[in-house]
Write a structure and sequence with these properties.
The chain contains nine helices and 14 strands. It is α/β, with parallel strands linked by helices. It has two domains: 4-197, Rossmann fold (3-Layer(aba) Sandwich), CATH 3.40.50.300; 202-300, Hypothetical Protein Yjia, Chain: A,domain 2 (2-Layer Sandwich), CATH 3.30.1220. Strand 11 and strand 12 form a beta hairpin. It is globular and about 65 Å long. It catalyses: GTP + H2O = GDP + phosphate + H(+). Pfam families: cobW, CobW_C. Keywords: Chaperone, Hydrolase, Nucleotide-binding.
Length: 301
């Protein structure tokens, strides 16, 4: 089955995500991959989408954020792109207010998770804003920190507005916050494109494992090949490390006619009966997890 790469472009409002996207699209054109774009803006009217050339399939998500209000819409748009456009790669520009864990959660639907290869998060940091971040309110500071911490590729943008001392300070700080990310200072988000292509995905058997970077957030998609026992699944859940933040997907228990939709968020499990057949994919999001061990436990169910 063809798998489509998906990248998330993250970064606070005005940091340079659209500028980066335009830069990426130029490079993609040179290497000839079929690209689709998904844009999430908080306002009701899209401004940035005018910046994208007309021949690139573009879906817009307006008036809400992937991290809270419009997850169903994100799912529908990605599914449409996969079915109608069959792109090699999707770039998802998130709102500046989106949290990375919730964004990944929003894009990895169990309905099509086996057809997507999540390549990681590219975060754009506005250099000046980083230096002056103590003046921002606490939740915004925390959000910018989270966006930096979960990046695989960290673009410190607006280099032209920084002094040499500021450049050294910010590079040092961000490298220590996100030691596994490739970090680069840029002006107008111009960066070495090969670093994006090199972002890491490992595939083994029918299981997809994506390292966003080695020690932080990562995702794992498991496909059940058979029905399982509910009590064994509950035991499996009890034994999970508490750095698995989110699980969602379909699981079919013995004697059940249709699968259950299973949702698990920060330790709280929830089952909902479906009334039709669903692909038995389950998406996991966690931090510092050895997914091979999780996979082995799932295989034993
Ligand atoms: N001086 C300077 N300006 C830049 C640089 N990169 C981008 N800009 C400008 O910063 C502004 C914001 O850039 P965008 O790419 O729209 O930022 P964004 O993150 O997509 O913004 P939102 O959609 O509001 O979240 C634009 O006016 C850009 O032209 C840079 O390296 N230096």
């Amino acid at each position: 089955m063809k798998q489509t790469d998906i990248y998330v472009l993250s970064g606070f409002l005005g940091s340079g995500k659209t500028t980066l996207l335009k830069e990426i699209l130029k490079k993609e054109k040179e290497i000839g991959r079929k690209v689709a774009v998904l844009m999430n803006e908080l306002g009701k009217v899209s401004i940035d989408s005018n910046e994208i050339e007309e021949d690139i399939p573009l879906k817009e998500l307006l008036g809400g954020c992937v991290c809270c209000t419009i997850q169903d819409e994100v799912e529908a748009q990605i599914q449409t792109l996969l079915m109608e456009e069959k792109p090699d790669v999707i770039y998802f520009e998130t709102t500046g207010a989106a949290h990375p864990v919730e964004t990944i959660d929003g894009i990895l639907s169990p309905i099509f998770a086996d057809r997507l290869r999540f390549k990681g998060i590219i975060t754009v940091i506005n250099g000046k804003q980083w230096i002056e971040r103590a003046t921002l309110n606490a939740p915004v500071q925390q959000l910018i920190l989270e966006q930096a911490r979960h990046a695989s590729l960290l673009i410190i943008n607006k280099e032209d507005q920084l002094t040499e001392a500021e450049k050294a300070k910010i590079s040092f700080e961000l490298q220590s916050i996100s030691p596994h990310a490739f970090t680069i200072l840029t002006t107008f988000s111009k960066f070495p494109f090969e670093k994006l292509l090199e972002m890491n995905t490992q595939v083994y058997d029918n299981v997809q494992k994506t390292s966003i970077h080695k020690l932080h957030l990562s995702t794992f998609v498991y496909t059940f090949k058979k029905m399982i026992a509910a009590d064994e699944f509950e035991t499996f859940l009890r034994e999970l490390p508490d750095t698995i933040y989110r699980i969602k997907g379909y699981v079919q228990f013995h004697q059940a006619k249709y699968p259950d939709l299973f949702q698990y968020s920060y330790g709280m499990p929830l089952f909902m009966q479906e009334d039709m057949k669903m692909p038995l994919n389950m998406v996991f999001i966690g931090e510092n997890i050895d997914w091979k061990l999780v996979e082995e436990s799932l295989n034993k169910l």
